[in-house]
Amino acid sequence: MSVGENTKRKAEKVRQLVEQHYEPGRQDRNKRWVFRNVVVKIYPMSERNFWRYMTLTKPRKTVSETEDPSQLKLF
């Protein structure tokens, strides 16, 4: 299934909203809360589409300074 450019742009905007309002340590500010209280008011969509958008725009992993690139990893 191919995803259009407009969908990719909308998914990126949704991801930015989540990054602005999501607080990892707080149980009352999880991603579902952000969806229900922020995203739906701006972009009406189902929760299923919200999670699909979140997987479309996965953040890129960067190598942290503490990780040794020559170290083998188990995935």
Which descriptors would you attach to this protein?
single chain; mainly alpha; extended
Describe what you observe in this structure.
With 75 residues, the protein is mostly helical. It has a domain of 52 residues. It contains three helices and no strands. α1 packs across α2 and α1 crosses α3.
Task: Annotate the secondary structure layout.
Elements: H1 5-21, H2 31-42, H3 47-56
Number of helical stretches of at least 4 residues: 3
Sheet with the most strands?
none
Judging from the principal axes of the Cα atoms, what is the shape?
A: extended
As a percent range, the share of strand residues is: under 5%
Give average pLDDT, whole number: 86
Low-confidence stretches: none
What structural class should be given to the helix and strand makeup? mainly alpha
The H/E string reads HHH
Distance linking N and C termini: 27 Å
Number of strands: 0
**What is the share of helical residues?**
40-55%
Q: Over all CA atoms, what is the radius of gyration? A: 15 Å
Summarize the structure.
With 75 residues, the chain is mostly helical. The protein is built from three helices and no strands.
